[in-house]
Amino acid sequence: MKRILLISTGGTIASVEGAEGLAPGMQADAILSYVPELRRGYDVSTLPLFSIDSSNMRPEHWLRIARAIQDNYDDYDGFVVMHGTDTMAYTAAALSYLCLYLAKPVVLTGAQQPIERTATDGTRNLIDSFAVAADPGSRGVMIVFNGHVIAGTRARKTRSKSYNAFSSIDFPDLAVVRGGRVVRYIATGDAPSVPIFSHALEGRIFPLKLVPGMSPHVFDELIDDFDAIILESFGVGGIPMYPDDSGDDAFARAIERWTQAGKIVVVTTQVPHEGSDMAIYQVGLHIRDRRGVIVAYDMTFESIYTKLMWILAQTRDPARVERLFHTPINHDLVDLG
Ligand code: ASP
User: Is the predicted pLDDT of residue 291 greater than 80, yes or no?
Assistant: First the structure.
């Protein structure tokens, strides 16, 4: 029998109805008791790590989950982490960077309805997750939800209420689970031999969504308090191009003040699909060619944010940051323009 470690962190799957609304109230053992066939099919151990709504999940929690996987890595064939759906995509991305070269699967799952409700999707998600965690072709970090097996760097919560809550953004599902069987679309390569776990995430990172008419002064307002900006540009990488009072390119100058201070500016797009490429339009090129910004291409926002924190814990040297950022990990970067 495959040995699976079931880790609980809270979320709706673990929630119970209280006077103040749904809140996590069950740990891994209690949740497992709702799906008794799992104990019959697998050698399951449980690890209650914390019991929080995923809106309260912070980088220190990601580090603790990674540590729990490292501490138990040799003793299990696979790991299933139950997690709230709201920020599960961030945790999956963070774990993809914190747990590198895994030869074993780490599956995140949860539910849109608590396990104690008749209409729960938690039962199916757990059964599917165990099937994926025990499948010989599975390795690395992924989300299993509503039959979809999504690479940890490619997931986004795209529905707030329906059972099909997660989508794989600009990348195919790794596999699907049909009737408890794993049907694999993306072949996993050879198993790496030695995993590498990281224990630090750093950096004060500000997500800045451009809106028409936004003042470039916002960059100056933020510069003392943040190490990096993730700029959600228009279209494939459009950033306004108009002169300031002295006739200079106002946004380019404001961004240059950041890069000259050794801070990081990553340009992504606010368009939900297909990523950024600043080499196409004048409104992209005026920034890309002269200002030392990093283009995010087709990475998801969740991956950009967590990858930057992982990198900034290792280096602040802008050239090294860019090199690491553009090194593909767990399918996070595919279309480099
Ligand atoms: N608020 C819950 C959470 O993210 C939602 C869920 O799990 O579906 O913890």
Answer: no
Which phi and psi (to 5°) does residue 313 adopt?
-75, -15
More confident residue, 288 or 180: 180
Which of the four pLDDT bands, split at 50, 70 and 90, describes residue 80? Answer: very high
Catalytic residue among 9, 12, 120, 153: 12
Tokens of 248: 């200079």
Confidence category of residue 246, pLDDT binned at 50, 70, 90: confident
Ligand 1 atom showing the smallest separation from residue 88 Cα: 4
Tokens representing 239 are 């950033």
298 lines ligand 1 (CB under 6 A): no
Q: Which of 6-15 are b and which e, b meaning 16 or more Cβ less than 10 Å from the residue's Cβ? A: bbbbbbbbbb
- Which atom of ligand 1 is nearest to 53's Cα? 9
In this structure, what DSSP letter does residue 68 have?
H
Query: What pairing do the DSSP bridges indicate for beta strands 205-209 and 228-233?
Result: parallel
Quote the pLDDT of residue 277. Answer: 87
Contact 121 CB / ligand 1 (< 6 Å) = no
Q: Mark whether 118 is an active-site residue.
A: no
